[in-house]
Hints:
Blueprint (H helix, E strand, L loop, with lengths): L1 H10 L2 H20 L6 H7 L2 H9 L9 H31 L3 H5 L5 E6 L2 H7 L6 E5 L2 E8 L6 H21 L2 E7 L4 E3 L5 E12 L5 E12 L5 E7 L4 E3 L2 E18 L2 E9 L3 E3 L6 E10 L5 E9 L2 E3 L5 E2 L4 E4 L2 E5 L3 E10 L3 H20 L3 E7 L5 E7 L3 H13 L7
Antiparallel strand pairs: 1-21, 2-3, 3-20, 4-19, 5-6, 6-7, 7-8, 9-10, 10-11, 10-18, 10-19, 12-13, 13-14, 14-15, 14-16, 17-18, 20-21
Helix pairs in contact: 2-5, 3-4, 5-8, 8-9
Amino acid sequence: MKILKKIYKFIASMPFAIILLIAVAVACVIGSLVPQGEQFAQYRDSYSERTAAFILAFRLDDVFHSWWFIVLVALLCLSVLLCNLSRVRALIRQTKNAAVPEQAIALSPDVTAEQIDDPEPVLRRLRFFRPVKTTVDGKEVVFAYRNRPGFWGAWICHVGIVLIVLGYALGQMTLFSATVYGTPGQTKPIEGTPCEVTIDDFRIERNETGFIEQYVSTLTVGNAETGETQSGTSSVNHPAVLCGYKFYQTASGDAVRVTIAENGVSFESTDLCVGEELTISFLPGLSLYFNAYEPDHNGQPAYQILFFYQGQHMDVGKNYFAPGGVIDLKPYTITLSEPVSYTLLRVKKDSFAWLVLIGAVLTALGLFLALYVVPETAWAVREDDGRWTLNGRSKKLAPLFKEQFDRAVSGGKEAAK
């Protein structure tokens, strides 16, 4: 039993909780800096072979789902929870005792003033507005207290921190993330969800000097399972929340509208973004890959189109085509339009963001109570000569309380401030 008690005290101790909090914070930083979910080759190319092996061995490629991260978060939550639970009885007792004259008077005062004619005006200047007259040990006492919720400031703050850590960890473990890109008018499925997004419009806003100020996408999202449809606008730093998902405006790039015709009659048209491949339906095995929109050998803006046949790159002698140019594959022609801009959207869903929000509110409340709602008591005891001895006690900020106390006793005009 003694060993279990020692283990309990160690887990419920504040030093252990601080160590765990630092460890979890370091793990979160690593998870943010190291690209998650990549293959060994990507890590080897970005770092080194040894570092790549280290990343995979310790699950740094998937920090938020690794066993050691889950254990750290569980221990941290357990430690702070036990630490808080062990303090509940003491806090309840402390809060109750602060309103009991016999208990409060038994404590040593921080400040004392003797030979007071009437303590009640002094108490009012100290902002003790509801003094209670009672008798303690046969002596007449005027007692007052305030700000008892301040006892709970640190406790509430710790609960908030636990909820923030727990919400962030659970959110990362269950986070959904996908990428969608396209041009206005296109409808794209959101992989891994029953939803699809239609890009109604995309515009690049510029200021008077021509510099880009904002990227704005107007979207319509539909859920095939529920039949729900929602529309909204997403811009940089202002994501749209549609059908339970957040749509972040991430980037933009160049796209080309490809029109395919046979003997001059168009029968297919599609937008091709940089990095996309178009399979030629009328020539099985042949595909076009839009590699870049950049200056050609003459310094003129052009599309770099790569040709592939059955997955193998074909050297056709020409890879750059000017906007408006035509690729001739008699009797078919492929016309490349002027460049258009496409929008790149990051789609995310964090099911535990509400828990982080609650934790943040509780943490802020706890800090406010701990820093600004300071429990204080004051009591005056009538002496045998009929005059009073006034005492005061402050849980924190004793020097400041002493200054206010002295000014209140002296009756200075600044006492009420």
